[in-house]
């Protein structure tokens, strides 16, 4: 089969012929129609990730058709259109992943290839209203957003939500899901264009996080503080989120792209009775609930740009630029 192979740190991915993987007991082989990029892929390429090994086929997100099953695997899966849960071996406790938890695409070869083999429990039927490219945009970002918004922050219909740094895949999926369940969603971004596009997807409005004292301006515009705040940056700007939160608010963050947050003024947290929550990926139950929510509400993930598999390096550079609005997708096989 053809696959994009990364041979080492700061090297370009190369399209080459490699052995087609065969499903072991309990696994399925998926012929991939589409895969999607995540920042994780760029971080691995740059050597900014734990447990590096080379050569490796990157890619955590994928959708395709089951073409073979391993011993003991339900044969009725053959021919099914599926999307892949990139999380493996979460562990026994739903509150947090165990030490053996892995994400597809390192250390196991991932989805930037014509075929991939995964455990049968990692595939779910593709929502019927989504194309393969749209479905491929969903898994990692979708389960991350779902767990952050619903499992951890326990968002309720009618609550006021702030999603910071809108434009990335997880943030947009969180926006779409929150709007679908009847929340009032506001956003921040460094780009007025991205704020306008978020409004087109259902956000009430937004503000640039570059604006001076933006929490006061935005909370006045929104009519109050935010019950739930969803963040992926942390860093110095995290202190602004404390000011934007309503009393009793929940601030959940699933990344730290701007690094560690500075010292947190304790009084702001305890006097406002805030909850600060960390979140990473999600359980199989989170993944199933996320897919069901997208199916139930007919939500379509936002796609930024689609590349051919052979253009994988260009797609990674697009991700690295950070200019995307939505998911960057690789088209692998015709539907």
From TrEMBL:
Coiled coil: none
Domain named Enoyl reductase (ER): residues: 8-330
SUPFAM superfamilies: GroES-like, NAD(P)-binding Rossmann-fold domains
One Pfam family per UniProt: ADH_zinc_N
Gene3D superfamilies, A to Z: Medium-chain alcohol dehydrogenases, catalytic domain, NAD(P)-binding Rossmann-like Domain
Residues spanning the membrane: none
Annotated protein name in UniProt: Zinc-binding dehydrogenase
Organism: Hymenobacter yonginensis
């Amino acid at each position: 089969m053809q696959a994009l192979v990364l041979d080492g740190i700061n090297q370009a991915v190369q399209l080459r012929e490699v052995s087609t993987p065969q499903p072991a007991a309990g696994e399925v082989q998926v012929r991939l129609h589409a895969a999607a990029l995540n920042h994780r892929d760029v971080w691995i390429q740059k050597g900014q990730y734990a447990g590096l090994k080379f050569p490796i086929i990157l890619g955590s997100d994928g959708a395709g058709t089951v073409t073979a099953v391993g011993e003991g695997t339900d044969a009725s899966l053959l021919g099914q259109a599926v999307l892949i849960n990139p999380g493996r071996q979460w562990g026994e406790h739903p509150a947090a992943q165990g030490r053996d938890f892995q994400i597809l695409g390192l250390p196991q070869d991932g989805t930037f290839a014509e075929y991939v083999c995964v455990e049968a429990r990692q595939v779910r039927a593709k929502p019927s209203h989504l194309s393969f490219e749209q479905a491929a945009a969903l898994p990692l970002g979708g389960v991350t957003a779902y767990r952050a918004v619903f499992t951890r922050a326990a968002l309720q219909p009618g609550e006021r939500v702030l999603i910071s740094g809108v434009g990335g895949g997880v943030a947009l999926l969180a926006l779409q899901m929150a709007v679908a369940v009847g929340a009032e969603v506001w956003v921040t971004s460094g780009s007025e264009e991205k704020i306008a596009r978020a409004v087109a997807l259902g956000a009430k409005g937004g503000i640039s996080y570059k604006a001076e004292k933006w929490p006061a301006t935005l909370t006045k515009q929104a009519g109050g503080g935010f019950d739930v705040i969803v963040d992926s940056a942390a860093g110095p700007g995290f202190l602004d989120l404390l000011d934007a939160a309503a009393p009793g608010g929940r601030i959940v963050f699933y990344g730290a792209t701007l690094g560690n947050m500075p010292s947190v003024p304790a009084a702001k947290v305890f006097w406002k009775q805030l909850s600060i929550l960390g979140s990473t990926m999600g359980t199989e139950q989170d993944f199933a609930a996320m897919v069901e929510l997208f199916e139930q509400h007919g939500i379509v993930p936002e796609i930024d740009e689609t590349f051919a598999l052979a253009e994988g390096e260009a797609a990674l550079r697009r991700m690295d630029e950070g200019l995307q609005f939505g998911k960057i997708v690789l088209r692998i096989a015709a539907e």
